[in-house]
Write a structure and sequence with these properties.
The complex is a heterodimer of chains A (about 240) and B (about 300).
Chain A (H helix, E strand, L loop, with lengths): L11 E6 L8 H10 L9 E2 L7 E2 L4 E9 L2 E9 L8 H4 L6 E3 L6 E3 L9 H5 L6 E3 L4 E3 L5 H4 L12 H5 L5 E5 L6 H9 L15 E3 L24 H11 L1
Parallel strand pairs in A: 1-11
Antiparallel strand pairs in A: 1-10, 2-3, 4-5, 6-7, 8-9
Chain B lengths: L4 H25 L7 H23 L19 H24 L7 H25 L12 H23 L5 H26 L7 H5 L5 E6 L7 H6 L5 H28 L4 H26 L12
The chains are: A alpha+beta (about 240), B mainly alpha (about 300).
Chain lengths: ~240, ~300
């Protein structure tokens, strides 16, 4: 059913720290590697070595220049499914292929029911869904549903592949429905935000904005050193001797 | 948004087909149009032919058309599913009405009721089509109060101009229908102008700042995550040059509204068969114009995902 389920309160999702993301693309490749053999496999590549490379990816990292009166900076911005609380991608689905799990809030696609009408990708404001032209069905991030509950993996590995791969710990996974969880507290502490909150999709994933510019660190545009005023005493004598 | 021809043709053809079906159902069912065999055969054939051709064309847009039957299941939440259900249900009274008219020469009694039900079904189906687009929040040009009435007006307009051509062809043309189809064309023109005016002045609160969560200042795309166009850009990143858009809007106005209006005005003063010829011409030109209008409807619609790409 593409009607939204009444939620159990558990909201699994990601918290992405835009302050520490270095744009290394490790999460992108780790995601592709795991998921091309995972729940929504394959993540088809079209003409991968040719001139018109195309293919399905669940996670894409953009780079932006954010300029404010405090100055400018580069912000690396990973973009993937936000597992919204009111995902229109699910309700527009005519076949029941798209669904949101009541137990943990993960938004998934049943590939066997998808007719490839692409309406869900139109309904997603975030560009989270990508069509597999080879298989003829829509594909999207599964929050690595085949990792996070996988008893065959060591407990520390039961996190999405993108989270496991991140070398700067810019990606955090947890239950955002529990206000006491580590991710919820991180969001509260760092002022985590929703993307496009005005559209009312109520994304589960949160983004931590870059920390404020600081005046503690030396500015690269610091003025040149000024001459030291001549002092008396021993240091003054040293200064006079060295200046001669 | 990428203007896929299958969907452009689908919405234009079914819009005209359902408009014609609704008019035939009501005017035939209430004995305003005589239950003539050839009139029914060609009229219902044209209406249902446009609808079936449009629906078949829409399956060309699907990645897995063999599973299209599944689309009838989610009518509780999905406007696309409701459209599928409404279109199929409408075939039942439309088919009965067609059988009554064409094979039994009967448009009153149960056939008349079937005609009215077919008209109601046609209107509901056009509403569901309009709502598919009107319900999509990421596309501000569609998520507006102009979309649903637009689909209904254009359906009534193309349907009435088609019906006029049909009746004029059988030398059954009426001045009232001529005036009605001209007025609907005028209404369509006004609605389209108002829609364009609204879209051109649209102030969209969603921007690169809210899309990235980076508050204040400016957010400029430095680097895309990929070097080639991906699905998102091919499907939703379609852009049309402002000058092309302006020219196509002129072409739309001339073909869909101005020329049909002029031809319908001339038909007033002409005897059969010239009146029939010009009426058919008006319908054909208007249909071509509406294809351009629907192409622009997609091409000028901007999806929020383009914000991530600095577009």
């Amino acid at each position: 059913m593409t009607c939204l389920p009444s939620q159990s309160g558990k909201k699994l999702g990601l918290v992405i720290d835009l302050d520490t993301c270095v744009g290394c693309q490790a999460c992108v490749t780790a995601c592709k590697e795991w998921n091309t053999g995972g729940h929504m496999a394959p993540l088809t590549d079209i003409d991968p070595y040719g001139g018109h490379v195309d293919g399905v990816w669940f996670n894409r990292v953009h780079a932006y220049e954010h300029t404010t009166e405090m100055g400018g900076r580069t912000v690396n911005f990973p973009r993937s499914c936000l597992h919204c609380e009111t995902p229109a991608c699910v309700t527009v689905c005519p076949t029941g292929a798209s669904y949101k799990r009541a137990s943990d809030g993960i938004v998934l696609i049943d590939e066997d029911k998808c007719i490839g009408c692409k309406l869900c990708s139109w309904a997603c404001p975030y560009g989270a869904r990508e069509f597999d032209t080879d298989v003829g069905v829509m594909k999207k991030c599964t929050l690595c549903v085949d990792r996070i509950y996988n008893d065959n993996l060591a407990e520390e590995d039961r996190v999405p592949a993108c989270v496991a791969a991140c070398p700067t710990s810019a990606r955090h996974f947890g239950d955002l429905g529990d206000p006491l969880s580590a991710v919820s507290q991180l969001v509260a502490e760092r002022g985590g935000v929703d993307l496009m909150p005005e559209l009312g999709y109520r994304p589960t994933n949160k983004y931590l904005p870059p920390r404020a510019h600081t005046t503690r660190a030396a500015s690269v545009a610091a003025p040149a050193l000024e001459p030291v005023r001549a002092e008396g005493g021993f240091l003054g004598w040293v200064d006079r001797m060295l200046s001669n | 948004m990428h203007p896929a021809f299958s969907v452009v043709f689908f919405t234009t053809a079914t819009g005209a087909g359902y408009g014609l079906l609704a008019l035939l159902g009501v005017l035939g069912g209430f004995q305003i149009i005589p239950p003539d065999f050839w009139l029914g055969f060609i009229g219902m054939g044209l209406a249902l032919g446009l609808i079936v051709a449009g629906l078949l064309s829409s399956t060309g847009h699907l990645g897995r058309p063999e599973r299209a039957w599944r689309a009838f299941s989610q009518w509780r939440s999905s406007w696309l599913s409701r459209e599928g259900v409404a279109s199929v249900i409408t075939f039942i009274p439309a088919g009965l009405f067609g059988i009554g008219w064409v094979f039994l020469g009967k448009t009153d009694g149960w056939a008349g009721i079937a005609g009215s039900l077919a008209a109601i079904g046609a209107i509901i189906t056009v509403c569901t089509t309009g709502m598919i687009y009107a319900s999509l929040k990421p596309i501000a040009q569609w998520h507006s109060r102009f979309t649903l009435p637009g689909y209904l007006i254009f359906s009534a307009m193309t349907g009435s101009v088609l019906l006029n051509a049909l009746l004029q062809g059988f030398a059954l043309g009426s001045k009232i229908l001529l005036v009605a189809s001209a007025l609907l064309t005028l209404l369509g023109w006004g609605w389209k102008l108002a829609t364009w005016r609204y879209n051109d002045r649209l102030e969209i609160s969603t921007n690169a700042n809210t899309a990235t969560g980076l508050a204040g200042g400016t957010v400029r795309s430095l680097e895309w995550p990929h070097t080639e166009e991906n699905y998102l850009l091919k499907e939703m990143g379609f852009r049309i040059a402002r000058k092309h858009s302006a020219r196509l809007r002129q072409i739309t106005q001339v073909l869909a509204f101005v020329l049909p209006l002029g031809l319908l005005a001339i038909v007033f003063a002409l005897p059969w068969p010239l009146a029939a010829l010009l009426s058919v011409l008006a319908a054909a030109i208007q249909f071509a114009g509406m294809l351009v209008e629907r192409w622009l409807f997609f091409a000028e619609a901007k999806h929020t995902v383009t914000l991530y790409y600095g577009r």
